[in-house]
Amino acid sequence: xxxxKKSTHPARDKLDAVGMDEICARTADCIPMxxxxxxxxxxxxxLSAYINATPERVQQxxxxxxxxxxxxxEDILAIADDGTSDVYLDADGNERTNQDVIARSRLRVDAxxxxxxxxxxKKYGDKLDVDAKISGTxxxxxxxxxxRI
Length: 149
Description:
Layout: H1 10-18, H2 20-28, H3 33-40, H4 44-51, H5 55-81, E1 87-89, E2 95-97, H6 99-119, H7 121-124, H8 142-148
Antiparallel strand pairs: 1-2
Helix pairs in contact: 2-5, 3-4, 5-6
């Protein structure tokens, strides 16, 4: 029986074993690319090169990133709606606002809003009114006109 030939591309073999579907599922679930790479046992640049190796993988990954932006938007609502730790009872039994929890929630929401706006700017980015109409009167001082004439 012949010995099995050792692969010359162990990183690619690891990535092929996991597959693009799983990489994209993890991406859509907001798992960072560095974490995905570490879990597979490759470095970030190797994972990036693997994704960018074919147009099909690039398109599949782009769809996963769009799904990731949608998940971030859903997370924003969940965080904003969760007020379970916003208040507490102090030692005297008085209800107090937990400013640390509220500030942390605000930070979590802001981070997700920023990421979603960068991942899917048409869907979650700031809308700019490019059809704005400008009207008004320009007033120029006579002394300014005299200097230029």
